[in-house]
Amino acid sequence: MKFVQRLPQNDKESALFMLIVSFISVNIIAPTITGFEIGFSVEHWLAVDREIIFMWPTVIVIVLLTSKAGDFLASKILGDGENNFEAAMVITAMCHVFLISIIMSVVGAWLGTGHISMEPITGFFYNWPRNFTIALFTETVVAQPIARSVMSLIHSRSNETVAATD
User: Fold this and answer.
1) CA-to-CA distance for 74 and 140, rounded, in angstroms?
2) CA distances (Å), origin 26, targets 104, 130, 139
3) Number of C-beta neighbours around residue 134 at 10 A
4) Maximum CA pair distance of the chain?
5) What is the 3-state secondary structure (H, E, C) of the chain?
6) pLDDT tens, 110-140?
């Protein structure tokens, strides 16, 4: 029951879930990675904040493009057995973040700097582990738990409404 209550159950809820997760993620991950690259300051944070307008739709597109591959990878790791809800969520998030972080380590740098260069590609193996760790922590500890709590709240209110009309 916990599994069903805390996850999207239709396309509208899936879109809301994705918007919540991506909004939180972009607003934490991009400034944190930028801070490690050029330093942490209000000035740098404001510069990143202006770029988030372009980064957010890009993240959503990349999430949609990698969704099936992430689910496939997670299913291979989880197998067909009964899995603990939390374990399944962490493995699934890890697989999705793995794929998204590979792409965003390059594309995000291009968007953030405003130009396409070889630097994100040549520095990939230096930057990607850090980017992956920041993204995985943000997804598993902040963004997805908040989005799952919103789903749970929506479903509990929906169940209360159904119960009140019966």
Assistant:
1) 15
2) 11, 16, 10
3) 20
4) 62
5) CHHHHCCCCCHHHHHHHHHHHHHHHHHHHHHHHHHHHHCCCHHHHHHHHHHHHHHHHHHHHHHHHHHHHHHHHHHHHHCCCCCCHHHHHHHHHHHHHHHHHHHHHHHHHHHHHCCCCCHHHHCHHHHHHHHHHHHHHHHHHHHHHHHHHHHHHHHHHHHHHHHHHC
6) 988 889 999 999 999 999 999 999 999 999 9
Look-up of token digits 């994100």: 120
1 has a pLDDT exceeding 80: no
Q: Can you tell me the distance from the alpha carbon of 24 to that of 162, in angstroms, rounded to the nearest whole number?
A: 31
Residue 90's CB: how many other CB atoms inside 10 A?
Answer: 16
pTM over 0.70: yes
- The answer to whether residues 59 and 19 touch, using CB atoms and an 8 Å cutoff, is no
Render pLDDT for 6-30 as a digit per residue (tens, 0 to 9): 778 888 999 999 999 999 999 999 9
Look over the chain and give the mean of its residue pLDDT values, rounded to a whole number: 88
On the CB side of 127, CA atoms within 13 Å amount to 23
Domain boundaries, the chain: 18-160
